[in-house]
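Objective 1b of the project was to move from sequence-level analysis to a structural picture of ligand recognition. The entry below was assembled by the postdoctoral researcher (A.K.) and checked by the PI before modelling. It contains the amino acid sequence of the target and the SMILES of the bound compound, fe (ii) ion.
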Amino acid sequence: MDALAIIDKYYPEENELKHILLVHSRSVADKALQIADRHPELNLDRQFLEEAALLHDIGIFLTSAPDICCFGDKPYICHGSLGAELMRREGYPRHALVCERHTGAGLSLAQIEHEHLPVPHREMVPVSLEEQVICFADKFFSKTRLDREKSLEKALRSLEPYGKEGVARFKSWCERFL
Ligand SMILES: [Fe+2]
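Corresponding predicted holo structure:
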């Protein structure tokens, strides 16, 4: 697949939003590939890692997040499942799972129901190693500060709003992936 061609299809204009998406997604892809290089024992699928990392945030344009130039009408937390819908329509169900399972450190069905989150009611915790690595790598890059990687402390802090479960998952990933 040509991940950049898929991005071009949904982001036809060369504007600030597309710039944010491309820079952020490249950073996440590079970090995921770096984890693959450092951990040959994980046997990660490098090609899939790169493609899915480039596409994991494809759904952001459908949401409302004016600070990162997203002027859609859906809540930002939906960008994962919205992106997954696009990827399924494109014929890439495996990449779709990366999209919908990368929010926070993943969203469990229990958490979605308990907090009445406006996302589809299904388990959205990363399962495959590639899903876990991309979700993990994503936590080191914001879309408002594109020029630097977050410290581990900051990455951890960004997960606090999602609750203890996600923080614990992230800590277990630190042991495996760093
Ligand atoms: Fe992301």
